């Protein structure tokens, strides 16, 4: 799933490609992906792209005052095309294409979604906050006003909730998903099941530093990369996420996994849980 660093890099890459270019049309190939009807897609035809930005994990193309917003969800991605087909795509359950943005010179970008669980969402709105998911976003963890005091209050308000879930909740902190929550908790040497409100003092400082460092370094590594290179860059720098059964790059212990109904987490017992493997079920009670 694209998370804050990848979406930030996508926005930067597309800003350079799209700014001051006119949108000729937007073709929807997966009708379930389009979540709005007013303004209509046709309102974007002829619109001049002014900027491409990010809100959490939402990608926002601003054109003549309107916003074409995409949430790539778990399996979505963006592919730049120097030349797009002249005919609009035909809707097909077999094709990963969800939408195509065509520019006035015949170039453009494909918004795709792999797999059968179609969760990718596209919106055309007058302002970003008209998208419910953006309106509910918590603070951005790389923003200047995301201070250690802000994080401390978030954790205190979360009570006994497990820190892994708190970090992933977009209404609490924007942009951190399954992969980077695993990574920054590993960097902080902290159990994913540790109660949020118990993280105080030195532990709070360690977690705050891990958030800023892990995400900040990922953004810097991704900066300037084309969309086609971002997935590989992300995977090559993961310490524990997606590496169950492999050695921890810090201590050499075997990276373990806890599986849930529709997701999983990875962690290092030596670095994060005092050497204790977490039970691979939702009811696990190991906290440290």
Looking at this protein, list some descriptive labels.
288 residues; alpha+beta; N-terminal domain of MutM-like DNA repair proteins; Helicase, Ruva Protein, domain 3; 4-stranded antiparallel sheet; 8 helices; 28% helix; disordered C terminus
What is this structure, in a nutshell?
This protein is α+β, with helices and mostly antiparallel strands and 288 residues long.
Helix and strand layout, with pairings?
Layout: H1 4-18, E1 23-28, E2 49-55, E3 58-63, E4 66-71, E5 76-81, E6 97-103, E7 108-113, E8 121-125, H2 132-135, H3 148-158, H4 163-168, H5 178-187, H6 201-222, H7 227-236, E9 256-259, E10 264-267, H8 269-272
Antiparallel strand pairs: 1-6, 2-3, 3-4, 4-8, 5-7, 6-7, 9-10
Domain Formamidopyrimidine-DNA glycosylase catalytic: 2-120
Keywords: DNA damage, DNA repair, DNA-binding, Glycosidase, Hydrolase, Lyase, Metal-binding, Multifunctional enzyme, Zinc, Zinc-finger
InterPro entries: FPG_cat (IPR012319), FPG_N (IPR035937), H2TH_FPG (IPR015886), Ribosomal_uS13-like_H2TH (IPR010979), Znf_DNA_glyclase/AP_lyase (IPR000214), Znf_FPG/IleRS (IPR010663)
């Amino acid at each position: 799933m694209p998370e804050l660093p990848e979406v930030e890099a996508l926005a930067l890459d597309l800003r350079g490609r799209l700014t001051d270019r006119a949108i000729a049309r937007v073709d929807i190939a997966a009708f379930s992906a389009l979540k709005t009807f007013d303004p209509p897609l046709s309102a974007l035809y002829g619109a001049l792209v002014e900027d491409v930005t990010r809100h959490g994990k939402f990608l926002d193309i601003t054109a003549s005052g309107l916003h074409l917003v995409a949430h790539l969800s778990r399996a979505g991605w963006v592919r730049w095309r120097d030349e797009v087909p002249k005919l609009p795509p035909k809707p097909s359950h077999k094709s990963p294409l969800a939408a195509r943005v065509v520019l006035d010179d015949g170039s453009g970008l494909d918004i795709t979604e792999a797999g059968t669980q179609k969760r990718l969402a596209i919106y055309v709105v007058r302002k970003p906050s008209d998208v419910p998911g953006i309106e509910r976003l918590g603070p951005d963890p790389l923003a200047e006003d995301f201070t250690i005091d802000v994080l401390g209050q978030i954790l205190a308000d979360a009570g006994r909730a497990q820190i892994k879930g708190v970090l992933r909740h977009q209404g609490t902190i924007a942009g951190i998903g399954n992969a980077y929550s695993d990574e920054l908790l590993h960097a902080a040497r902290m159990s994913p099941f540790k109660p949020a409100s118990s993280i105080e003092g030195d532990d709070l400082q360690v977690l705050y530093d891990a958030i800023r460092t892990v995400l900040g370094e990922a953004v810097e590594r991704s900066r300037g990369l084309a969309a086609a290179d971002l997935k590989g860059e992300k995977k090559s720098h993961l310490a524990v996420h997606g590496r169950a059964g492999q050695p921890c790059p810090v201590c050499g212990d075997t990276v373990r996994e806890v599986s849930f109904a529709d997701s999983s987490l990875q962690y290092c017992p030596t670095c994060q849980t005092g050497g204790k493997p977490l039970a691979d079920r939702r009811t696990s009670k190991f906290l440290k």
